[in-house]
Design brief:
By secondary structure, the chain is mainly α. The chain is built from five helices and no strands.
């Protein structure tokens, strides 16, 4: 964890790039898709203790859906799975 917002934002961008690389040219990320380490890390950071990272990662997940890289049902399902155990739910609920 770095305290600089610029470094944190770059980290989230790198994470999203890694998710897209893992996804490859396959269709949208769905429940049946293989969840690679970058996607798993993105989901974990959606519950980060750092508000900036949490918000940026949740925004990135929404953008993945908006751009057709992830299926909405998959994302909603994962949000519902994360909510009960998340220490910080602000980003997930927003």
């Amino acid at each position: 964890d770095f305290s600089s917002p610029i470094i944190q934002a770059q980290g989230v961008r790198s994470l999203v790039a890694a998710v897209l690389k893992e996804k490859g040219s396959n269709g949208p990320i769905m429940q049946s898709s293989t969840q690679g380490p970058a996607l798993e890390a993105l989901w974990q950071q959606c519950c980060s203790d750092c508000a900036l990272v949490r918000s940026a990662c949740c925004d990135a997940v929404v953008l993945l859906v908006d751009q057709g890289h992830a299926d909405l049902q998959y994302v909603l399902s994962n949000v519902l799975i994360l909510l009960p155990s998340a220490r910080n739910t602000q980003g997930l609920i927003r």
